[in-house]
Amino acid sequence: MYKIAWLPGDGIGKDVTDAVKIVLDGIEFNAELIHGDIGWKFWKSEGNPLPDRTIELLRKCDCAYFGAITSKPKEEAQKELNPELRKEGIQYFSPIVKLRQLFDLYVNMRPCKAYPGNPLNYRDDIDLVIFRENTEGLYSGIEYHPVPERVFNALMETHPKMERFKNVPLEDMAISTRIFTRKGCRRILKKAFEYADKFNRKSVTVVEKPNVIRETSGLMVREAREIAKDYPDIELWETNVDAMAMWLIKNPQDYSVLVSSNMFGDIISDEAAQLIGGLGFACSGNIGDKFAVFEPTHGSAPKYAGKYVVNPMAAILAAKMMLDWLGEIELAKKLEDAVALVIKEGKVRTYDMGGKSSTLDVANEIVKKFKEIH
Ligand code: NAI
Ligand code: MG
User: Fold this and answer.
1) How far is CA 33 from CA 55, 91, 149, 351, 370, in A?
2) Is residue 35 a part of any domain in this protein?
3) Which of 298, 304, 351 to mutate to test the pocket of ligand 1 (most atoms within 8 A of CB)?
4) What stretches of 111-240 show up as alpha helix (H) in DSSP?
5) Could you list the residue range(s) of the whole structural domain that residue 308 is in?
6) Per-residue tens of pLDDT for the chain, all 374 residues
7) Same domain? 238 vs 323
8) Which of 275, 301, 326 is the last residue in one of the domains?
């Protein structure tokens, strides 16, 4: 029996995880789902959106399933914090970003597949899988504002192009770093190629911008060429991120596996998700070598919280990814078949797909179809 850390979080995180629970029960997935606290509620009451007890729970489980959280800007976060905790200088942090770093979940995998019959599909023949680096790059959080004098001086001393900025007051300057490591590049690229190899995908496209961001994007592309040598049957395509944004609209069906750094991957994967139905369909896995956290990509959508009207497909497809990762390949496949059938029949649909069904109606219908076809 598997042990899954079950983290509904805030807002519609609960609505969609309730739907996933119905599905996992219905398909008789043999697991104990153990509730963990995460999100805004715990920031307000404890000053910690990811309590230590939750981290301990995760360490005891095979993997985690996460719904969604609410996060708010700095000032609001301080205002909503329990007054007794306010003075200690604690700051809000994103618990999901923390989880990625803490468990070294370096792969953010985002399949974007158009299921036939989905009225929200841009085209019916899209089947992309995006591998986004999840731990470094522009989202490392190594940023300065104002810029410390030591950092400024070091840049002045080491880079001739800093000359242009020499008279800018330090408080009028902000710097966000984009650190890539060879190891970081190689491991995400490897995962993309291994996936392509396993599922007979013909190409891997590395999405960067090495003609302009010469050092970081350059490192990623050079490493991609190295790794590609181990996979002679898979074509390596190199595409600049701006062009990729365009190609995804023009010919999304031509692409297969995409791999990119943290921020570019984030942007491209949201664009790709919109081609196959948007937030109601976008699922993702944060995957490391030993642990993984699966989640729908959407947030807590506060205005729909507790109304059970949002689409649980993204959350259910994230559960399908979890089954795959656990090695329950057959169960995952059967679940996907049931999902595809419900989409195709089009009788039970949430509002975003033009229907009136509830979140839980969709879950129950998927279970019904699962039982009918197997
Ligand atoms: P959101 O993803 O929560 O919702 C935006 C809009 O998308 C919703 O109002 C709704 O119209 C639609 N939508 C989202 N999920 C849907 C679903 N399953 N079915 C149908 N329609 C759906 O993004 P928003 O409003 O920008 O953020 C709300 C809160 O969520 C914020 O506090 C934000 O920080 C947080 N957030 C959390 C994320 C996470 O937990 N991974 C990711 C994105 C935002
Ligand atoms: Mg995003």
Assistant:
1) 15, 30, 50, 29, 21
2) yes
3) 298
4) 149-158, 182-198, 216-228
5) 1-105+285-374
6) 999 999 999 999 999 999 999 999 999 999 999 999 999 999 999 999 999 999 999 999 999 999 999 999 888 999 999 988 887 678 899 999 899 989 999 999 999 999 999 999 999 999 999 999 999 999 888 999 999 999 999 999 999 999 999 999 999 999 999 999 999 999 999 999 999 999 999 999 999 999 999 999 999 999 999 999 999 999 999 999 999 999 999 999 999 999 999 999 999 999 999 999 999 999 999 999 999 999 999 999 999 999 999 999 999 999 999 999 999 999 999 999 999 999 999 999 999 999 999 999 999 999 999 999 88
7) no
8) 275
Kindly give the distance from the C-alpha atom of residue 282 to the centroid of ligand 2, in angstroms, as a whole number: 10
Which atom of ligand 1 sits closest to the CA of residue 314? 18
Q: Are residues 33 and 79 in the same domain?
A: yes
Instruction: Give me the residue label for tokens 């181990």.
Output: 230
**Which atom of ligand 1 is nearest to 297's Cα?**
41
Q: Give the nearest ligand 1 atom to 295 CA.
A: 41
Residues in contact with ligand 1 (CB, 6 Å cut-off): 68-71, 96, 279-280, 298-303, 310-311, 314, 352
Q: Is residue 112 part of a domain?
A: no
- Rounded CA gap, 145 and 101, in Å? 23
Question: 342 and 317: one domain?
Answer: yes
Q: Which residues contact 152 (CB under 8 A, 6 or more apart)?
A: 170, 173
User: What's the domain count of the chain?
Assistant: 3
